[in-house]
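We treat protein structure as text, and this decision shapes the records that our systems exchange. Below, we set out a record of this kind in full and without editing:

***
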Amino acid sequence: MTDRQNTEKLFSVDNLKEVDIELLDPTLRWWMSEQGQVREEEVRGTKERMRVSLGDAHDDVYIVAREQAGGPPAGVMGFGSLDARFSPYRSSASAKAAGLLTAFISPDYRGQGLGRVLITEVFHKARTSGCTEVIWSSNPRYRKTAWRFYTAMAGDQFGTIDNFFFPGSLSPVWRKSL
């Protein structure tokens, strides 16, 4: 287990456990909604991908942060194999890139540095696993929340990807060298 500290709080960061998945349900449902409607299929798909990652032969890694060691998760992030649609955004053909899979913080913890703690740990774990960069995009519904955060953590977007989240979507792409 790794502890990261910002000026306001100390969060404990560790690997996702099965019990965390249902505890994260309210956070996932809060973020995966549009105009008051929860996108149930998206919530189920994210939870299933998290469950599959707990198996032995899987490349995805999810981490959670807790306000107290052993307490409920306050946020989750994950990384794994790069979606082939992001291959053109690698810094070079030989770069070993991971994709950022999930980044959700409980609304109760927004603005307290938890996102920075989690993404810093994701970058560290990806580097430790042999990756040289992390590449990702963000759903247009998070334009007013996540996009500014990602720019602060990785610099300006360096491209856009069409139709990644839904037909007609245009989303920024970020890349962080490790």
